[in-house]
């Protein structure tokens, strides 16, 4: 009976631990800005001064640290600061990087039909990525783009 009590106590403790660990996400990870305006602060509290204001909904960010209701993020320029977690979305987005126009193609191939071109700095929603190509949708202009022309792709 003593062994059964110990077994039940251990089983209950492990069940209680599951929701707690499920709430913690391993960093770093990708996210996007959910709000049309987002304050980046120098510390993880509203008491810290605002260092930057983002006004670009959908911009991809890398979450590098988690602290209660705050996230330390890094933006595409490498700037880091703290933002309120609820103003970030788990939806993946990406931003066009590099020089010159980026081709948006009909299929994941350099020889596929060209649908549109996107300039560096264009932000769009990210679909699946495979073989060096990613699905990319910006304002209804969707297609396949080279993954190496996007920030917000791959392992953060």
TrEMBL record:
Q: Where is the signal peptide?
A: 1-22
Checking Pfam families in the record gives: SH3_4 (PF06347)
UniProt keyword list: Signal
Query: Which InterPro entries does the entry mention?
Result: DUF1058
Task: Give the protein's recorded name.
Answer: SH3 domain-containing protein
Organism of derivation? Altererythrobacter arenosus
């Amino acid at each position: 009976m003593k062994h059964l009590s110990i077994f039940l106590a251990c089983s209950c403790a492990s069940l209680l631990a599951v929701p707690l660990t499920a709430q913690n996400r391993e960093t770093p990870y990708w996210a996007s800005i959910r709000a049309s305006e987002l304050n980046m602060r120098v510390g993880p509290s509203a008491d810290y001064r605002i260092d930057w204001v983002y006004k670009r909904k959908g911009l991809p960010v890398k979450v590098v640290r988690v602290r209660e209701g705050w996230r330390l993020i890094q933006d595409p320029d490498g700037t880091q600061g703290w933002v309120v977690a609820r103003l970030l979305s788990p939806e993946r987005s990406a931003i066009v990087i590099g020089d010159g126009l980026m081709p948006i193609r009909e299929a994941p191939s350099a020889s596929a039909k060209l649908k549109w071109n996107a300039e560096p700095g264009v932000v769009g929603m990210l679909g699946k990525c495979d073989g060096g190509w990613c699905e990319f949708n910006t304002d209804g202009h969707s297609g396949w783009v080279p993954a190496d022309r996007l920030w917000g792709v791959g392992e953060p």
